C-alpha cells in the first residue's frame, strides 16, 4: 500500500514541485520510455517521469548514452506522454542537440516540446552551457539541470565513477548549482556525488534537488525504471535498491509459455473460438 501523501489526482506542475520542496515533501521520480510502463508508473503515483537518454542503454542496448538522437528521444517522449495524466514529464536533451550553440539548443528544445508533449527538458552541465540554458528558459521552456556524474561526458571522465570527491570539483559544482538556480531552472538532478555535498547543495538552492546516488539529504530521488524493477541483473551499483525481480519473473513466464506451446497445453478449449 502507498504511504504517499501527495494528492494522487492533481496534475504535477513545476510550481507544485517548488511547493513540495518548501513544505519538505519528498519528490519521487522514475524514468520511462514507452506508453505501457509510463501509464503504470503514473497510475502508481509518481511525481515526475524522466524520459532519460538512458533509453540509449535500456531501450536500444548501446554502451553509452551518446548515440541516441533527437528524433529517437522525441519518439520515446511521445510514447510516454500518451500514457501519463498526472506526473510532470521531463525529456532529456540528447548529446549533440544543445552543446554547439544556443540557437541549436533552443531549436532542439522547441522540437521536443512541440512534437512530444513533454513539459520540460533536462540538460547536462553547468557554466559551459549557460547560454543554451538561458535561450531555452527565455522561450518559456522549463529546464531541469544535471550536475555531478553527467553520463554524456563519460569519455572526458574516463568512466562512471563518483564525482566531486575533491574540494575543487565540489566547489565548482556548488557554484554551478547556484547559477542554475539563479537562472530559473525548476529542478536539478545530482548524480553520484558524496551525500554530504548533495545535502549542502539542496540547502543552498530554492529549486528542488533530485538525487541518484546522492544520498537522502536532497529533495527527491530518481532511479532508472528497469534497474529498480530488477530487469538489469548485470547493473548493481551501491545506490541502487531493487523493488522487484522482474527479469526472473519474465524469464519464468516465458519458459512456462514455451513449455505450454510445445506440449499443446496452450491454448486450451476456453482459449479458442
Ligand atoms: O538518462 C537518465 O536516465 C538520467 C537519470 C539517471 C537521472 O539522466
The arrangement of helices and strands along the chain is HEHEHHEHEHEHHEHEEHH
What is the CATH class designation of the largest domain? Alpha Beta
* Overall 3D form: globular
Q: In the CATH classification, which architecture of the largest domain applies?
A: Alpha-Beta Barrel
State the low-pLDDT regions, or none.
none
Helical content, roughly? 40-55%
Number of domains: 2
Major sheet size, sense and barrel closure:
8 strands, parallel, barrel
Mean pLDDT: 97
**At the fourth CATH level, what is the homologous superfamily of the largest domain?**
Phosphoenolpyruvate-binding domains
Structural class: alpha/beta
Strand order of the largest sheet: 1-2-3-4-5-6-7-8
Question: What is the topological layout?
Answer:
Blueprint lengths: L13 H9 L4 E5 L3 H9 L4 E4 L3 H4 L11 H14 L4 E5 L9 H15 L3 E3 L7 H9 L4 E6 L5 H4 L9 H17 L3 E5 L3 H10 L4 E4 L7 E4 L1 H4 L17 H17 L11
Parallel strand pairs: 1-2, 1-8, 2-3, 3-4, 4-5, 5-6, 6-7, 7-8
Structure commentary:
The chain is an alpha/beta fold and 273 residues long. The chain folds into two domains: 3-242, Phosphoenolpyruvate-binding domains (TIM Barrel), CATH 3.20.20; 245-273, no CATH class. 41% of the residues lie in helices and 13% in strands. The chain contains eleven helices and eight strands. The chain has helices spanning 14-22, 35-43, 55-58, 70-83, 102-116, 130-138, 154-157, 167-183, 195-204, 225-228, 246-262; strands at 27-31, 48-51, 88-92, 120-122, 143-148, 187-191, 209-212, 220-223. The chain has an eight-stranded parallel β-barrel, surrounded by seven helices. It is globular, with a radius of gyration of 20 Å. The two termini are 39 Å apart. Bound molecules: 3-methyl-2-oxobutanoic acid. 3-methyl-2-oxobutanoic acid binds at residues 31, 50, 52-54, 92, 189, 191, 212, 222, 224.
Amino acid at each position: 500500500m502507498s504511504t504517499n501523501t501527495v494528492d494522487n489526482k492533481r496534475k504535477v506542475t513545476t510550481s507544485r514541485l517548488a511547493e513540495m520542496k518548501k513544505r519538505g515533501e519528498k519528490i519521487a521520480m522514475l524514468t520511462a520510455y514507452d506508453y505501457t510502463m509510463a501509464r503504470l508508473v503514473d497510475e502508481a503515483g509518481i511525481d515526475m517521469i524522466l524520459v532519460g537518454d538512458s533509453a540509449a542503454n535500456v531501450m536500444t542496448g548501446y554502451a553509452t548514452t551518446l548515440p541516441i538522437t533527437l528524433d529517437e528521444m522525441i519518439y520515446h517522449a511521445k510514447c510516454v506522454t500518451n500514457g501519463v495524466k498526472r506526473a510532470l514529464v521531463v525529456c532529456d536533451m540528447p548529446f549533440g542537440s544543445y552543446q554547439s550553440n544556443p540557437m541549436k539548443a533552443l531549436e532542439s528544445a522547441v522540437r521536443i516540446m512541440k512534437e512530444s508533449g513533454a513539459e520540460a527538458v533536462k540538460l547536462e552541465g553547468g557554466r559551459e552551457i549557460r547560454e543554451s540554458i538561458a535561450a531555452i528558459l527565455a522561450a518559456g521552456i522549463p529546464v531541469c539541470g544535471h550536475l555531478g556524474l553527467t553520463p554524456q561526458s563519460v569519455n572526458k571522465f574516463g568512466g562512471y565513477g563518483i564525482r566531486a570527491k575533491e574540494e575543487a570539483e565540489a566547489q565548482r559544482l556548488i557554484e554551478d548549482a547556484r547559477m542554475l538556480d539563479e537562472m530559473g531552472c525548476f529542478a536539478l538532478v545530482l548524480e553520484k556525488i558524496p551525500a554530504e555535498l548533495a545535502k549542502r547543495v539542496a540547502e543552498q538552492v530554492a529549486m528542488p534537488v533530485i538525487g541518484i546516488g546522492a544520498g537522502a539529504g536532497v529533495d527527491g530521488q530518481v532511479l532508472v525504471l528497469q534497474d529498480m524493477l530488477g530487469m538489469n541483473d548485470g547493473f548493481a551499483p551501491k545506490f541502487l535498491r531493487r523493488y522487484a525481480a522482474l527479469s526472473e519473473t519474465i524469464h519464468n513466464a516465458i519458459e512456462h509459455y514455451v513449455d505450454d506451446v510445445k506440449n499443446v497445453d496452450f491454448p486450451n478449449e476456453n482459449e479458442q473460438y
